[in-house]
Amino acid sequence: MASSPDDLKARLHGLLSEFQAKIERAHTEQELRKVFADYGGSQGAIRVAQKDALKEAPNAEKKAIGQLSNAVVAEVERALEGRLAALHEAERRRDLERTVDVSLPGRVRRLGHLHPTTLVRREIEQIFAQLGFTVAEGPQIETDFHNFEALAMPKDHPARDMQDTFYIEGEPELVLRTHTSPVQIRTMLSGPPPIRIIAPGPVYRKDDDPTHSPMFNQVEGLCVDEGITFADLKGVLLHFAKRFFGEEWGVRLRPSFFPFTEPSAEIDFTCAFCAGSGCRTCKGSGWIEIGGAGMVDPEVFAHVGYDPERYTGFAFGWGLDRMAMLRYHIDDIKLFFDGDVRFARQFK
Ligand code: DAH
User: Considering only CA atoms, which residue is closest to atom 7 of ligand 1?
Assistant: First the structure.
């Protein structure tokens, strides 16, 4: 078959139309690339046609044949690129439509909020800060010395039983602190009076029933200086009760015993559930017990090297979660530790 450049041109033109029709029908990149290889590849139909034409052509026409074929291959390549871009664009649009409906209203993000115990702790810290008290901390894994011994509870002391203790296996001198009172010891050992601190934090006891949790929070208070009296203790507690609960609030101190204070007292606040008129929670008394207090025992001063002839001090301690229960009228301490957001969300 005679093959002039015109014949070749016609044949290549036919191949180009065939190619264009096929890539229109190809719907994946893989299909497209296969079609391209069949036409524009080094073994493809265009190069075959070029070879056939070259075989019979006089030398003078060979250059034109080569240029013509290259031009058609270039066109095939452009068509391929265009089709690939269209395919990718269609894919992208499909993805967008599948995952993002831009007409949907946005989701409102819930703001986080503080736990009631944290709210109450911060408020307590603030009230005491205005009286010159700073916040002190101590470790939750405590030594027997700080938790008991220095607080006038030697190894055989019956008061140790009041606080059923978690010991650490193989470490007879370490305990999970049973109260925040060891922070008193750490603070006094760290420097001389005057001292005015409160120490909030978790404590641990082998207690587990509807009103007790094996982990709960306490707040400790300690004030040591020259001339501190029991009247200062009562004044500070009364000030706190009025600031925290309300002006009409009262404080009652009942004689009690703690090894590390002398004299010692139980602290009662006006019942928050009935504002003092008497209810089931306060068993009709109008008062509710919130913790213990007293004047620092000289024996404690001896353990930290303070001169009991020169200094006196008061201390107090109460349950932080219990304080939050009174504040928010919550009757089950377990609610504080369950981590149920429906509970926590109610406190702003
Ligand atoms: N640490 C005592 C307890 O957990 C509470 C307490 C009583 C603390 C009297 C004090 C205090 O600072 O003076 O049972």
Answer: 292
